[in-house]
Write a structure and sequence with these properties.
By secondary structure, the chain is an alpha/beta fold. It contains 4 helices and 4 strands, in the order αβαβαββα. The protein has helices spanning 10-17, 34-48, 66-73, 107-121; strands spanning 22-27, 51-56, 86-88, 101-103.
Length: 151
């Protein structure tokens, strides 16, 4: 419905979210940046009385606690008060959710879920799975560093 709003600057998305009663936002900002952007969008929407739903692609809302996030990413979470409002899952696999927003689980977890959930749902495999994931030299979803990029 709002195809022209794709890939708009933060302030334009924020303005849109305050005008439409129901909307969905996919945030693909980097880890450590996404939480503050989403927090400002949701704060503006709440003030306006609108109800957007968010799918965050970064790791910012994958953990249930700010302490767990900080242990892994070595910096404080940008919006710890929002953590309880996110469920970490592949959205297509959620029949219902107790939270209004979704934190995408990341590449390895998503690949595992996309392959295994249909098999489990159809009863084609036992419920205990063992997965071995291997990344290429450019993996890890971060800035190029010596350990992951080999120009």
């Amino acid at each position: 419905a709002y195809g022209e709003a794709c890939f708009q600057p933060h302030n334009e998305i924020q303005s849109l979210l305050t005008r439409v009663p129901h909307s969905a936002v996919f945030c693909a900002a980097p880890h450590g940046v996404s939480a503050q952007l989403i927090d400002s969008l949701l704060t503006a929407a709440e003030t306006a009385g609108t109800r957007p739903r968010v799918v965050d692609i970064s790791a910012d809302f994958r953990f249930r606690s700010a302490d767990a996030y900080q242990r892994v990413y070595k910096h404080p979470h940008g919006a710890p008060q929002r953590l309880a409002h996110f469920t970490c899952a592949v959205p297509e696999h959620l029949a219902e959710s107790s939270t209004p927003h979704v934190a995408h689980p990341g590449c390895f977890a998503s690949a595992t879920l996309l392959a295994s959930v249909p098999l489990l749902a159809l009863g084609l495999t036992p419920p205990q799975l063992f997965v071995s994931g291997v990344t290429g030299s450019t993996g890890s979803g971060r800035k190029p560093v010596a350990g992951t990029h080999h120009p």
